[in-house]
Target: ArsR family transcriptional regulator
Amino acid sequence: MLNLDAAFSALADPTRRAIVARLALGEATVMELAEPFEMTQPAISRHLKVLEGAGLILRRVEGTKRPCRLAPAAVAEIDQWLAMLRQTLAANYNRLDDVLAEMKTKE
Model:
């Protein structure tokens, strides 16, 4: 299972969230990922290492390039965890609706 602490820690940085959002559109090289940012390629590479260490992205070797892509399993595990939270919140709201409806009928 994915280490959620590492994943959310990696996603706490806005630059890394932007990189993940870009990779959601498809695979990209380090240079392509660096284009919209006012930082050096080595700085982007450090962000990519954090994302890779958290299991959020995968890299492959293609000659001198190192294209990156999202790790589908990691995204699915985060979504699964968030789905559990959504279900819990929905159950809480449903119970609150029931209490409020009962209070209203007593009035």
Observations:
- The beta strands are 57-59, 68-70.
